Amino acid sequence: AEVALRLADAKIASVRATPEGRELVIPAPRNGVVVEKTVVVNQQVSSDGPSLMVVADLSSVWVIADVFENQAIDLRPGDVAEVTTPSLPGATLTGRVLMLSSIGDPERHTLPVRVRLANADRRLRPNVYARVRFSVQQPQAALEIPASAIVSDGEHQYVYVQDKPGHFVRREVVAGSAHEGRMPIING
Question: Against a cut of 0.90, is the pTM above it?
Answer without folding.
Answer: no
